[in-house]
Amino acid sequence: MDEKRLREELANFGRRILGSGLAVGPGGNISARCAEKMLISPSGLSFEEVLPEDYVAVDLGSGAVLSEGRPSSEVAMHRAIYLAREDVNAVVHVHPPFVIGVTSGGGSIEPMFPDFVALIKRVATLPYILPCTERLAQAVKEAVQNAEAVVLLNHGAITVGATLKEAFYRAQILEEAAKITTIARLFGSPRVLSREEQEELLGLEAERYRQSVLKRT
Ligand SMILES: [Zn+2]
C-alpha cells in the first residue's frame, strides 16, 4: 500500500477507535509499517483532529523522526514491536475501559465466544509499568513475541496485526470480551470455551477463510 493511502487509512481507523469507545480525549496511539519506516499518530492530539498528513514518519532502524511534528510519546513501544515482529504491519494502543476495569479488578480476559478464538490466540498481561518509558517498550517487545494482544495493567492494551483492520478488530474484540466477562459475572461464573472447543472452531474452513481476508490490504 502506498504512503498516501496508508495515511488515509490511519486517520480513518483513528476515528473508528474513538467511535468505538476504545480511547477518549487525546488517549491512545496507532501506527503502521511503511517499508523501512513507521507512520505513527502525533503526540497530544485526539484522533478526531488528526489529519492523514499529521501522522509522523519515524525510521525503524535508527528511530529518527523523518517528518514534521512530534510522534506519540509511546513511539519507543511501537518501534520495538516492529523490530521484534516482522509479520506485524500495524499496532493499536488504546485505553479500553472494560479491559482496564476487569483486569485491574483482578479478572482476566478469557476466550468466551467464537470471534475471540478466531482473532486472538493469546493475551499476554504485563504489570503496571510507567507509560512512555523504555522499560515499557522492552517489556512489550518481550510480551508481543507470542501474543496478538497485550494487556497493560492499570493502563490499557496493545493489539498487533498484519493490517490495521486486523489490529483494530483485535482491540474491539478484546474490549468486547471484557464487557461479556463483566456481564457474565453479574449472572454467575463465566463459562470459558474449553481447549477442545477452541481447537474445533479453529479447524473450521469458514474461520480460516475469514482470517485470511483480514490479512489482505
Ligand atoms: Zn497509553
Can you offer a commentary on this structure?
By secondary structure, the chain is of the alpha+beta class. The protein has one domain: Class II aldolase/adducin N-terminal domain (L-fuculose-1-phosphate Aldolase), CATH 3.40.225.10. Helix content is 43%, strand content 15%. It contains eight helices and seven strands. Strands 3-2-1-4-7-6-5 form a seven-stranded mixed sheet, with helices on both faces. The longest helix has 24 residues, at 164-187. The chain is globular and about 50 Å long. It starts with a helix and ends with a helix. The mean pLDDT is 95. Zinc ion is lined by residues 93, 95, 131, 155-156.
SSE topology:
Elements (H helix, E strand, L loop, with lengths): L2 H17 L9 E6 L2 E4 L15 E4 L15 H10 L5 E5 L2 H8 L9 H6 L3 E4 L7 H10 L5 E4 L3 E6 L2 H24 L7 H8 L2 H10 L3
Parallel strand pairs: 5-6
Antiparallel strand pairs: 1-2, 1-4, 2-3, 4-7, 6-7
The site of zinc ion has 5 residues, from loops.
